[in-house]
Amino acid sequence: MNCLRLLEALDVVGCAGICISTENSQLLQNSLLILQTENHFRKCYYWGRIDGIQNDYHIAYGYEKDCMSGQVYYYSIDCMNWLLLPKATKCGRFLSPLAINRFEGEPSIVTNVYNVNPPFPPNEDPKTYYDGPIPRELKEEDRLAATVEFITEDAAVIPRGAWFKCPNGDVIENPCFEGLGASDASCLKSYLHARFPKEKWNTNLLSRPDYNYALDFLDSVDMDVPQGCWDLQFLLGGRLAILHSLYWHGMTFFHKLDSPHYGFLYVGQGKKNLDLPFML
């Protein structure tokens, strides 16, 4: 959610049961404005919070030109001092899903994740699944980076038309976006993943009769597997759309109908609900 409208957005997601204290919300808005100015970001956003035992991790990101490929992530423990979040590593992506314990809240802690929760049966060769020496220890900062990447890949959402792909390939926020109507907002095809598309471009072409590549270059959430992994609700007399990810509990997307105001926020422990296919 945009740092310039952070307090208003937090009031909106409060309708969905997500609360951040008044003190932290004020600190976040002021510190994110400073972060945006110091890094010359065009816009800066509050991504959410990952709860830890000792401290919580607050995540933010901003961009200068391209709002999809130019995102730079930061994290903070005290809502004031922001540290650059490193890129997710191959080791972090491999070991993070194996971590069964909660985040401690100390970025420098190193834990032996592999021995606690081995990913392979003892009679199989791990080299068939992982190229190179099998890593066993994971730094919490690397786990945080991988978890943020996983959640963003799976559950970060924007409404259709909010992003526009220019002829030169840059992705910008659409200045002409005026929001979704009631009929469009009730359809999952109108909500797109805020990441690089994984489906072929003609897959999206065949899914919409009013296809426009400049707007429909992203994957829509209605193609996610299994069917039913998203929960769409309408609040405030149908004027507010709330989209919950059932894979990542705590990820909430909101959109005020017929207005350009939208955003998403994650508040949770960074755990994916792998039992979802058996719960639907």
TrEMBL record:
Keyword hit for Thylakoid: no
Single GO BP term: cilium movement involved in cell motility
Compartment(s): Cell projection, Kinocilium; Cytoplasm, Cytoskeleton, Flagellum axoneme
Chief place where the protein resides: other
Gene Ontology CC: kinocilium; radial spoke
Classification via Pfam families: Radial_spoke (PF04712)
Signal peptide limits: none
Family: Belongs to the flagellar radial spoke RSP9 family.
Protein name: Radial spoke head protein 9 homolog
Classification of source organism: Eukaryota, Metazoa, Ecdysozoa, Arthropoda, Hexapoda
